[in-house]
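Forum > Structural Biology > Help requests

Title: Can anyone predict the 3D structure of Cobalamin biosynthesis protein?

Hi all, first post here. I have the sequence for Cobalamin biosynthesis protein but no way to get a structure on my laptop. I'd be grateful if someone could post the structure tokens.
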Amino acid sequence: MNLIAGIGCRRGASAEEVIAALDAALAETGRAREAVARLATIPLKAGEPGIAEAAAQLGIEVTIVTDAGDVEVLTESRCSRATAGLGSVAEAAALAAAGVGARLLAPRSSTGRATCALAETAA
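Reply #1:
Sure, ran it for you. Structure tokens for Cobalamin biosynthesis protein below:
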């Protein structure tokens, strides 16, 4: 398990929407759910029940990253920039949580009200 799934979402997104975004990112990169070590998001999204419920259903933890603004992302969302100050919450959270030397496997996947980006840890 060396993947971190960065999650961004609109307020009130359900666990099903979060998992759908995760599954889309996994399908795009040819990875399996079992490879995901944890979900990651930013403090602004820490209270979103859909993210917590998705993690519980998947049997993994959620990491709240505070240094997501320090990483370079691949995509730019006007909504994400306006609300969170980040080009992509999902990409930034994944990279920040995965640590130094991590890399994004692909740009974020978006399904409805949730986005997911997968970062692979260096170790």
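The chain has a mean pLDDT of 91. The radius of gyration is 12 Å.
Shout if anything looks off.
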